[in-house]
Amino acid sequence: MTGDQPGPPPTRPGLARALIDRFGHLVRELSKFATVGSVAFIVDFALFNYLANARGVEQVTAKTISTVIAATVAFVGNRFWTWRHRQRSNPAREYALFFLFNGVGLGIAVACLAISRYGLGALWPGVFQTALADNIASFVVGTGLGTLFRFWSYRRFVFVEAGTQTVTEAAHDRDPRA
Question: Coil, strand or helix: which one is 11?
Answer without folding.
Answer: coil
